[in-house]
Write a sequence for this structure.
């Protein structure tokens, strides 16, 4: 159960990082 929870948390963090990278890239291109 703990491993599954960690995996879920890591996935959310990775998705958040990707969103932030995309956001930063868009800001730089403006």
């Amino acid at each position: 159960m703990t491993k599954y929870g960690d995996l879920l948390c890591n996935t959310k963090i990775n998705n958040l990082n990707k969103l932030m990278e995309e956001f930063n890239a868009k800001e730089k291109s403006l």
